[in-house]
Structures are given as C-alpha cells and as structure tokens.
Specification:
Number of helices: 13
CATH class of the largest domain: Mainly Alpha
Strand order of the largest sheet: 1-2-3-4-5
Radius of gyration: 18 Å
CATH topology of the largest domain: N-(1-d-carboxylethyl)-l-norvaline Dehydrogenase, domain 2
Shape: globular
Order of helices and strands: HEHEHEHEHEHHHHHHHH
Helix content: 40-55%
CATH superfamily of the largest domain: N-(1-d-carboxylethyl)-l-norvaline Dehydrogenase, domain 2
CATH architecture of the largest domain: Orthogonal Bundle
Oligomer: single chain
Largest sheet: 5 strands, mixed
Length: 269
C-alpha cells in the first residue's frame, strides 16, 4: 500500500464501501498533502450512513474529495465500449483538471459540483435495481419494470432534495443514466441479486453464487435510516431492505409494492 500511494499525485479508490474507511486509514500516512482522492465506490457505510466522499474528508482532511460516477458497467468499460460519466467535486478548477485526466474518445466525462446528488444517485439506484431485478425474476413484464424505475427515480430525488442535492442531478448521468443501466443490464450485480430473489433463491444462496456482493444489499438499511432521519417516504427502498434482510419473502415484498400509496405524479419533485 505504501509503494502504491506514497508518490501518487492522484488517488483513485475503487473498493467496496464497507472496506473504504479501513483502506483509506491505512493509506493516509503515506499520502502527499493536497492530492485529490477520487471515489468510484457506490455505497454507504453501514454503521454511520456516511458517503464515501464524507469518509475521505474525515480520514484524509489534507486531501480533496471527488467522485467519478454514472452509467459505467465495469465489464463494458474494460471491453472498450463507449460510455459517459460525471466527475463531481466542489472546485471548478479541479473539475476541469480531473475531466482532462479521465476523458477519452470512448469515455466522455462531464463535470458537476453537486457531490451529494451525484453520490446519492450512485447509491440509491442500486436499491431500485434490486427491485427491478426482482420484478424481472418474477416475470412481471416490461410495464412493471418501467414503473419501478420511474417511481424509484422519484424516491431517489425526494431523498436527495431533503439532503441538500439538486433535483436536476437525478435527471442526468449520475441519476437517471446510472439507474437505467443498472436496472436493465444482466451485467449489473444489483439487478442480478433481485432477479435471483425473484426466482426464489435466498440471500444465503445468492451470497454463495456471486463473486462480489452487490452494494445495494449492504447499503439498503443505511438508506432507510437516512429516509427516517429526513422524513422521506421510500416504499421501494423499504421493501427491498426488508427483503434482503430477511424480514419479508419475495411474494410479500412484491405484493406490498403493488399496494403502495398513490398520489399526484409531480409531488415527489
């Protein structure tokens, strides 16, 4: 770790959210002052509910936090498929510098100063993707998946606004873009978890089958604590949380989603 970090002028961290703090704590003594730390992780710390950029600021106060996020399925990026992403940090100058670092002909990078919104988009879409996968696993159809994605976006936006994010962020790459990719792709681990649950597998079975656990499974309880703290209704996230923590079975969760309250469509925004 020391060899990898001691001479770095930019640190990119792409590790599971629950190991993020420990690894960064180990690396911090070796980092040069004033470098930028870019998070690629899309989760919340279970115990604290902290976002990854918050952990960077807590553990590495001498460094500047940023994140790279968007509809960036790792397998497609590695295969060289075209994609677009967002670099988010508070400094306009640093946004442009990091944009230049990551941008390429096949990887278009846009800038944003809404760190909260961009980061929450990457976290919350994982939970919606589990619900969409669950629907697909049950064979519920395209209309149902579309409804889950759309109402899931409303939940994401509600919580984001309550926490200080900009509503328009959730209509961009970090919100809707990432949500569509994660909810519809077989390459998405979160969608895969939901699909397997929909087909009747238990979380224990899924843990054994999957090389990496989907971030949405671990972040869901932390998201619901935030929803309670900020008094935001999130019926989809609530059902997913109860499902992955064993409080409900798949049929109970799906029926509960169908019974969720209705109202004006423009109310969430």
């Amino acid at each position: 770790l020391q060899l990898a970090t001691q001479s770095a002028d930019l640190l990119v961290v792409a590790i599971p959210a629950q190991q993020f703090r420990a690894v960064l704590t180990d690396a911090e003594p070796f980092l040069q002052p004033g470098i930028s730390i870019v998070s690629l992780s899309k989760g919340l710390e279970i115990e604290t509910g902290s976002r990854m950029t918050e952990i960077i600021e807590q553990v590495c106060p001498r460094q500047t936090a940023a994140l790279l996020t968007g509809p960036n399925l790792a397998q497609e990026i590695m295969a060289g498929y075209a994609a677009a992403s967002v670099i988010a940090t508070r400094s306009d100058r640093l946004q442009r510098e990091l944009q230049d670092v990551f941008h390429s002909p096949l990887f278009r990078v846009y800038t944003n100063d809404d760190i909260i919104g961009c980061e929450l988009g990457g976290v919350l879409k994982n939970i919606v993707a589990i619900a969409a996968g669950m629907s697909d696993g049950l064979g519920a159809g395209d209309n149902t998946r579309s409804a889950i994605i759309t109402r899931g976006l409303a939940e994401m936006t509600r919580l984001g606004i309550a926490m200080g994010a900009k509503s328009e962020t959730f209509a961009g790459l970090a919100g809707l873009g990432d949500l569509i990719a994660t909810c519809t792709s077989e390459k998405s681990r979160n969608h895969t978890v939901g699909f397997k649950l929909g087909q009747g597998m238990t979380m224990s079975d899924i843990h054994r089958d999957m090389y990496m656990v989907a971030e949405g499974v671990k972040s869901a309880p932390a998201v619901m604590r935030l929803a309670e703290q900020f008094k935001v209704e999130m019926p989809i996230a609530s059902e997913v949380t109860q499902l992955v923590t064993g409080q409900r079975d798949i049929q109970q969760s799906f029926k509960a989603l169908l019974r969720a309250g209705i109202g004006r469509e423009d109310e969430p925004f």
